[in-house]
Amino acid sequence: MAGFEGNAQSFRVLTELAVHDTIYPGLNLTRATLSAASKYPWYEEPQGTASRKWGIYSDQQADFEFSRGHLPATWRTPTQQPSTEYRTLEAEVMDWADDVAYAIHDLEDFVKAGLIPLDKLRFSSRERQKFVDYRLENDPFSSRHPEEIEQTVRALLQRNSPFVDSYSGSHRDRARLRRFSSGKIGSYISGPRLVEASNLRGWSLEISPSQRLEVSLLKGLLWYYVIESPSLVSSRLGYARIVGDLFDMLADTEPQGGSIRRIYPRYFSERLEEDSSPQNTLRTAADFIASLTETQITDLYRRLTGMTVGDPLDKIIH
User: Fold this and answer.
1) How many whole angstroms separate alpha carbon 159 and alpha carbon 299?
2) Residues 268-304 pLDDT 10s
3) 3-state SS, residue 18
4) How open is the CA angle 54-72-30, to the nearest 5 degrees?
5) Of 294, 242, 246, 286, whose CA–CA distance to 57 is shortest?
6) Same domain? 221 vs 240
7) Which residue range forms the structural domain that includes residue 121?
8) How many structural domains does the chain have?
9) Residue 310 within any structural domain of the chain
10) In Å, how far from its chain's centre is CA 110?
11) Which range (123-137, 178-192, 250-264) has the least confidence?
12) Are 137 and 221 within one domain?
């Protein structure tokens, strides 16, 4: 059984876990839609590309084969060394849209929260250089383009920055931020074009290197100022501990451990009644935890560890 991966879990939700009707699992989506949602259409492998990112759990072979059934036979099943050439064209579009949304909308949110100092990046060459050095050290894509990175940072964060002061939340600042983000979204939508290609799908989405670099840098701001900040790192480590402990409790197949599964909502209990194999026990534990919000995970962990019993009538899980 492959472990947990966010992209593979999304495919599992679409094909197995989401509830739409009583006569089929999942959302009963078309092959084209499922393929468009598959950014990494291959299984996990012990090494190489597929050891870092994969999009299909090994026990979902039938669903995966269905999702690729409309494609040419030579292209349906990725090789042992998977490539993004096995994505459909729609998946390429989806992947770019995902990157743009991540880069722009998350940036907006954290500028408004005062965590990303666009004003400092505009006026401080030292601040810009620290960010460039971070990207060159931590991002393989950036490290292959050191000169372009510095030029793009100056253009994007110095000459074209909308802020001369820290974000205040004023009408003027909100307008400046929206104008900046809207302009970037517009260019990232209108820039890509379809080109004939020699790969298996025959067509590719061509995105200019300069736009890929810009989006990579905007996403990098989130990592540098937010995700890698000490406060968020400590939270991530804490949640990793909580999730790991919860999984160990729910995956315990010993008789005394089995009683903890009484906390499952009926839907997950039914899945275990249908298949009580060790593999399905582990997968159901992962499915259940992945379905919870951060607040639900924290509250549930506190109850199960005795940190807080809480009100027995307070329903954590719905």
Assistant:
1) 47
2) 989 888 988 888 889 999 999 999 999 999 999 998 8
3) coil
4) 65
5) 286
6) no
7) 89-228
8) 3
9) no
10) 18
11) 250-264
12) yes
